[in-house]
Amino acid sequence: MLEVWPGVPAWGYLLVPKGIKEGGRRPVVVCQHGLEGLPEDVVNEAPSARAYGAYKGFAATLARKAMSCLLRITSTAARITFGSFSGSSISWG
Question: Among 14, 41, 11, 40, which residue's Cα sits nearest to residue 28?
Fold first, then answer.
């Protein structure tokens, strides 16, 4: 869990391609799902998954092509205005 704004936590997955050597570097793609979606929506490749029609598991496809992918979600329970993080910089360590 990462606090991206006071009282606003975020969580997600980091997909790392197989075969990266220790200290190796790869580009990272931030894979965003739609409003009220979940990180699973952009990684699930099962045609029966609820969001497969829109995303078709594109994050998993990118990871297989040697791209690291960050799938994140920011809690909306803090009653923030949608889009208030647009253009904000978030450091993931």
Answer: 14
Where along the chain do its domains lie? 2-74
Model confidence over 16-50: pLDDT tens digits? 888 888 888 888 888 888 777 888 899 999 999 99
Distance of CA 31 to the CA centre of its chain: 4
Strand duo 68-74 + 2-5: pairing: unpaired
Burial readout 5-32 (b: 16 or more C-beta within 10 A, e: otherwise): eeebebebbebeeeeeeeeeeeeebebe
- Global confidence as pTM: 0.65
